[in-house]
Design brief:
Blueprint: H1 11-23, H2 29-35, H3 43-46, H4 49-73, H5 77-114, H6 118-127, H7 129-138
Amino acid sequence: MARKMVDENNDEVRRILEHLLEIDVTISAREVVRLHPKLANASAITRNPERQALLQQYKQRQIQFRKWTSRVNKKSPLYASAELAKRDNEIDLLKNQVAALTQSHVAMIHAVGEAGGMLALQRFYERHREIRAQLEKLKVLPEDKQA
């Protein structure tokens, strides 16, 4: 009979990793196990592929977080605040551009379809399958024409 795994969905491990990231404690298997109510050994993390992947993912996030905070700490708070606001504006601009491009692309696909050019469009997408796959993920192709 197979043993039942403790914290099967790794919800508690995720919660602990998020907490360690928030309080900026160096993330390690030992630290996670120390805070976990049921896991007793670091090997419960390192020998489980899902938990090991989670641990690595959060370690990378912590590296990025620390790199960012060290850059912010070297700058004045006013400059850091202005830089963050500028990046937020750039993100908003890019989101708006993507939305506009998506809407215009959908309109062009429908216009081509209404003009009777769906066969040409299908031939185009046969040659460019990766583009078609991305468009299907975005749900921008006419529903009755998606394969």
